[in-house]
What we know:
Layout: H1 3-18, E1 21-24, E2 30-33, E3 38-41
Antiparallel strand pairs: 1-2, 2-3
Amino acid sequence: MNKRDHAREGVRRRAAELGIVIEALPSGLLHVRGKFVDFKVRDLADVLPHDLEPSRW
């Protein structure tokens, strides 16, 4: 398992803890959505754990 695979697995684990859904789109992008997050990304390795948490105003 390389570094990027480890990062992807960490994001999947954290998303599951927060109840965030990650679904693949026909375009090849991943749609990450939950109560406080909604964005599209090409690779989960590019997502940081704090990107999954609600914004602080």
